[in-house]
Amino acid sequence: MISVTEEISLLTKQENQLHTSLDNLRGQRSKVKEHKQLEKELAGVLRKRQNLQAYEVFELGMPVHRISSSRLGIVKELKITPGGMGEVWVSWEGLLQIPEQPNLLQIDDAARAKIIAVGDRIKIVDGHERAGKTFTVARLLARGAVETTEQQIFEREEWQKIVEATQKLVQNSIHSSSFSQETQMVTQLIEELGGETLETTVTVNTTATQIEELTDDEEKERHWLELKVEQAFYEAGTSLRELRDKRLYRSTHTTFETYCRDRFGFTRANATYLITGASVVDNLKKMSTNGLQILPTNERQTRPLTKLEPNEQRQVWQQAVEQADGKVPSGRIVKGIVDRLKEKPLVKARDFCTVGDAFILTRLEGTERKYNGCWVIASQLRDFTVVVDVYDGELAVKPENLNPIDLPDVRRQLPETLKRIKRLRNNVEMLDRGASNILKDLGRQIYLTEFEADLLTFMEQRYGIDN
């Protein structure tokens, strides 16, 4: 399976070829049917290319909105349909995921910048009928709009965020004297994570029951590790791992998941990503060939590597560094290399077959699935695809979709059979339904029985087609 970028490149080349073919046919009245077929094929290629180009910009965790809607959603899954079209699966307001067409979605920059969060207070600006009034945000909408607890909706230009001057401290809070500083540091860390939708409000669990006291040494170690979580993604991951493995959260929380949510505003998935990302960095540090020790600077760069073996992680990272000209590569570069690693190597068409070879079609998907089992003749070799003649037209397929026919007698007979079928289809304006069904069936039979040969001859005579 080729990458989206490579598919777009192939489609662009195919589009240019179709334009050239159409230009060559202009003004030729005898080629009207062929001209319409090419226009139809061009429209399909153009639609697919535009779809994939729109699809390519989206990443998991991105906040998005529909072009004509105020609802805010999060990208949960990116899929390629069997027909090769891109689908963006979006969770709207935390509900079920819905497949969306990428060209109808826009990335929401306001939500991506985290300019406001649920629970924040806002003040309505001068010039509005509610100027000076304050509200609490209950729901985030597209383009920076918000809905308040009073079910009032305000556009981005109509409100300003209220920055609280003081923080309400409660008994049993951890390090109350440094709470404001820690909140700022956690917020900075969350913003640096990128690509994930995280809660940016740090809360303190005031109702947790003390299950087990920590020793003085454990208490010091806990707070030292917590400070490291608030500094950088690698130290955050290694510190979270120790907090989890040593259960240093047990004096205030019963589970590591609730501890991460209340103490740092992390979901379970966020904490897991950081921990596994730190493990990847530990493995990359073992590389002896990377003298500069260029290592990941954020969790998104490590995520594609987490499912690879340690040796594969180091190999992929080294390739990514080289592709980034010796700098820290982006998560997209790393993911692209991992995707290519999982793909089957592309087979050049000219190394696979020659024009005139006969095959059986297999493993086609989408609208082309109906041709599985049909025999075809190779008519044109492109870079990585083969154009084949099928009983009712042409298809561009990959070598993996072609099973060779090795029977010499069959290979000699099929080109002549295809020629006769195409004469009937191209020279008869309106084939009878029965005749069309017979030709379709013959397109699946690699050799003609005596009766089938007689049927084909009868149709040629019936429609006045000379041999």
Regions with little confidence, pLDDT below 50 for 5+ residues: 165-210
Instruction: Specify the number of helices.
Output: 15
Largest sheet: 5 strands, antiparallel
SSE run: HHEEEEEHEEEEEHHHHHHHHHEEEEEHHH
Count the beta strands: 15
Average pLDDT, rounded to a whole number, is 81
Describe it for me?
By secondary structure, the protein is an alpha+beta fold. It is built from 15 helices and 15 strands. Strand 12 and strand 13 form a beta hairpin. The longest helix is centred in the first third of the chain and has 24 residues.
Give a short synopsis of this structure.
The protein has 467 residues and is an alpha+beta fold. The protein has helices at residues 4-25, 32-55, 109-112, 179-193, 216-229, 233-245, 256-264, 268-284, 299-302, 310-323, 331-342, 349-352, 408-427, 433-442, 450-462, and strands at residues 63-66, 73-80, 86-92, 97-100, 105-107, 121-124, 134-140, 146-148, 153-154, 159-161, 358-361, 375-381, 386-390, 393-397, 402-404.
Annotate the secondary structure layout.
Layout: H1 4-25, H2 32-55, E1 63-66, E2 73-80, E3 86-92, E4 97-100, E5 105-107, H3 109-112, E6 121-124, E7 134-140, E8 146-148, E9 153-154, E10 159-161, H4 179-193, H5 216-229, H6 233-245, H7 256-264, H8 268-284, H9 299-302, H10 310-323, H11 331-342, H12 349-352, E11 358-361, E12 375-381, E13 386-390, E14 393-397, E15 402-404, H13 408-427, H14 433-442, H15 450-462
Antiparallel strand pairs: 1-2, 1-5, 2-3, 3-4, 6-7, 6-10, 7-8, 8-9, 11-12, 11-15, 12-13, 13-14
Helix pairs in contact: 1-2, 5-6, 6-8, 10-11, 14-15
